[in-house]
Amino acid sequence: MAEIPLAVVGRIMKVAGAERANREAVKVIAEKAEDYGGKIAGEAVMLTALADRKTIIAHDIKLAAERINRR
Q1: Quick count: other Cβ atoms within 10 Å of Cβ 64?
Q2: What is the pLDDT of residues 5-14, one digit of tens each?
Q3: Which pLDDT tens digit goes with each residue over 18-48?
Q4: How far is it, in rounded angstroms, from Cα 18 to Cα 9?
């Protein structure tokens, strides 16, 4: 089950131009967003550990996203 509120995902879809989307479509996007976010977070954790830090910073997230998108 998705952790991201479906209403938020629905609003994001509307901003992207969707006039309407059924509940199942919103659930699928929420699941995919969580999967992608989890991959980025995992990569950021690894980068943070390599830098010998415990706190993830914005730069870690940006770099992690770039690395994930290259794969």
Answers
A1: 21
A2: 999 999 999 9
A3: 999 999 999 999 999 999 999 999 999 999 9
A4: 11
Question: Is 44 within the bounds of a domain?
Answer: yes
Max Cα–Cα distance, the chain, nearest Å: 47
Both tokens assigned to 15: 């901003």
pTM here?
0.88
CATH number at residue 40: 1.10.20.10
Expressed in angstroms, the distance from the first to the final Cα of the chain is 26
H-type alpha helices, 1-71: 6-15, 23-50, 58-70
Give the position of tokens 């919103």: 26
Locate 41 and state its tokens: 């977070």
Q: Provide the residue range defining the domain that includes 26.
A: 6-70
Take residue 2 and report the two structure tokens written for it. Answer: 């998705």
